[in-house]
Automatic annotation (TrEMBL):
Signal peptide residues on this chain, from the entry's feature table: none
Native source species: Sarcoptes scabiei (Itch mite)
Record SUPFAM superfamilies: Protein kinase-like (PK-like)
CC terms in the record's Gene Ontology section: cytoplasm; nucleus
Database matches in PROSITE patterns: PROTEIN_KINASE_DOM
GO biological process, one term: intracellular signal transduction
Name under which the protein is recorded: Putative serine/threonine-protein kinase haspin -like protein
Listed GO MF terms: ATP binding; histone H3T3 kinase activity
All residue ranges annotated as the Protein kinase domain in the record: 59-412
Keyword Transferase: yes
C-alpha cells in the first residue's frame, strides 16, 4: 500500500457542501451570488477583519515579495504553523453590483468574486494533493509541487500597517518611499487573503545566473542538475493533476515556477497508485497561479472550472511571428482550443512544458559547466514530448525508458 499512514482525500470533499456552478465568468448575474459562495468556501457567514483573522502577534519577520495587477504577496513566519515560512496573497475584490454602481469612477487592481471563487476552488483542489487523494476508480495520487493552502478569508476595512508594500527597488536612491496598504486608494474595501506555505523563489530569477557562492556565503543560481530536476518535478506534478482533475495550467510561464532548497534527496510522486521518484539535487519545485487554469472535479459540467481566454489571447494568436517561446505557447493553446475553453485539451500542458524546457536549456544555468549527460537528458525531453497527447503518457514512457536504460541524471 502506498503511504498507508497518510490521510486520504476524495474528489467530492471539495464540492459536497454546495451545488457549484461555473460558466467561466461569462454569465454572472448582477446580484452576484458568488460573494456568498466565496464566503462559504472560506467557512464564513460575513467578511471579517484582518486583525481578527491574522493578528500580528501570530506572525513575525514580514517581508514584501511581489505585486501583480490584482494582488500583493507578503512573506512571514507563522507561530501557529511551527514557525514555518508562510505567504499571504492579498487580492482586492469587489461584487459585481458594486462595480455597476461605480462605472463612472476610475479604479483598478481588483477582481470580481466570480474570479476569486474559481481560484479558491482550484487552489484547494491542488493543495489537497499534498495528501493521498483518490479518484472515483480508487487510484491514488499525490504531489507536493503545488502550494499548500492553510486558510482563505474575506476581510474588509483597512489592512494593518504591519503589512508593507515595497513597489520600488530600495537600493535605488531615486526610488519612491515605501507605501503602506492604508495609503492605497480605490473603491473596493474587501480583500481575499490566501494563506499558504512558502514555495520558494522564482525560477526565472535563479536561472538568470550561473551557480556560484558569493563571498558572503550566499548561494546564487542553481546548477544544471538542479534545473533538470525541476523540469522533471514540474512535469510529473502536472501529470498527477492532469490525471485526477483533467487539469490544464494554461499559463505556465517561467515566473509561475518557484524553487526552494530542500534536504530531501528524492522528491516522490504518486500517479495512478504508482510511486515515481526524482533526485532533488537539493531543490524542490512548486507550480503557482491557477488564475487561468481548468479543472474538472466531478462527473458533470457543474464541477468544471475554467476561464474563457478568447478575448485575452485573440491578439496574440493573430501574430504570424511570435516574439518568444511564451507567446508561441499562448498561440498554440489558442489555436488548439479556439472557443471551447470549458473542454479538456491536455495538449496545452505539452505546449507549456516544451516552452519551459527550452527556457531552461537557453538559460545561464546551462550556459557553462553543464555535463553532456544533463544536456542530453533535457534535449531528450524537448525532442520527445511532442509525440504525446497527455503528460501522463509522456511520464509513463519516460520512466519506463529510463528504468530500462538507467541513463537519466535525475530520474530514479
Amino acid at each position: 500500500m502506498i503511504n498507508g499512514g497518510k490521510r486520504k482525500f476524495f474528489l467530492h470533499s471539495l464540492t459536497s457542501k454546495q451545488s457549484i456552478e461555473n460558466d467561466g465568468g461569462g454569465g454572472v448575474t448582477d446580484n452576484d451570488d458568488y460573494w456568498f459562495r466565496v464566503l462559504n468556501l472560506c467557512n464564513q457567514n460575513n467578511p471579517s477583519h484582518f486583525g481578527i483573522e491574522f493578528p500580528s502577534r501570530l506572525f513575525y519577520d514580514f517581508k514584501y515579495l511581489d505585486s501583480g495587477t490584482y494582488s500583493h504577496v507578503i512573506k512571514a513566519n507563522g507561530l501557529e504553523y511551527n514557525r514555518t515560512p508562510i505567504v499571504f496573497k492579498i487580492i482586492k475584490v469587489v461584487q459585481k453590483n458594486t462595480l455597476n454602481h461605480f462605472l463612472s469612477f476610475s479604479f483598478n487592481g481588483f477582481e470580481l468574486y466570480s474570479d476569486v471563487f474559481q481560484e479558491i476552488v482550484i487552489s484547494k483542489a491542488l493543495s489537497a494533493l499534498h495528501n493521498i487523494t483518490c479518484d472515483p476508480h480508487g487510484y491514488e495520487y499525490q504531489t507536493h509541487c503545488f502550494p499548500k493552502i492553510f486558510a482563505t478569508k474575506i476581510v474588509h476595512g483597512s489592512i494593518p500597517n504591519y503589512f508593507i508594500i515595497r513597489k520600488y527597488d530600495e537600493t535605488n536612491p531615486k526610488a519612491k518611499p515605501v507605501e503602506r496598504f492604508e495609503d492605497l486608494r480605490g473603491v473596493p474595501r474587501e480583500h481575499l487573503v490566501i494563506l499558504m506555505k512558502f514555495c520558494g523563489d522564482s525560477l526565472w530569477q535563479l536561472i538568470k545566473h550561473r551557480h556560484r557562492i558569493s563571498p558572503k556565503g550566499v548561494i546564487i543560481g542553481i546548477t544544471p542538475e538542479q534545473a533538470l530536476s525541476v523540469c522533471y518535478q514540474v512535469t510529473i506534478a502536472l501529470a498527477v493533476a492532469e490525471s485526477i482533475y483533467q487539469f490544464e495550467h494554461r499559463d505556465l510561464h517561467i515566473c509561475n515556477i518557484l524553487v526552494k532548497r530542500t534536504k530531501k534527496k528524492v522528491i516522490t510522486f504518486v500517479l495512478r497508485s504508482i510511486p515515481y521518484k526524482v533526485k532533488s539535487f537539493g531543490v524542490k519545485a512548486c507550480i503557482i497561479d491557477a488564475t487561468f487554469s481548468r479543472v474538472c472535479l466531478g462527473p458533470d459540467d457543474q464541477t468544471i472550472f475554467y476561464t474563457d481566454l478568447s478575448n485575452r489571447l485573440k491578439g496574440t494568436a493573430s501574430n504570424p511571428n511570435p516574439i518568444d517561446g511564451q507567446e508561441l505557447a499562448y498561440q498554440q493553446m489558442y489555436n488548439k482550443v479556439i472557443d471551447k475553453w470549458k473542454d479538456w485539451f491536455p495538449e496545452t500542458n505539452i505546449y507549456w512544458c516544451k516552452y519551459f524546457y527550452n527556457e531552461v536549456l537557453c538559460s545561464d544555468s546551462f550556459a557553462m559547466d553543464c555535463s553532456d549527460s544533463v544536456k542530453r537528458d533535457l534535449k531528450n525531453l524537448i525532442a520527445t514530448i511532442d509525440n504525446y497527447r497527455t503528460l501522463v503518457e509522456f511520464v509513463q514512457n519516460l520512466f519506463y525508458s529510463n528504468s530500462s536504460s538507467k541513463s537519466s541524471t535525475a530520474v530514479t
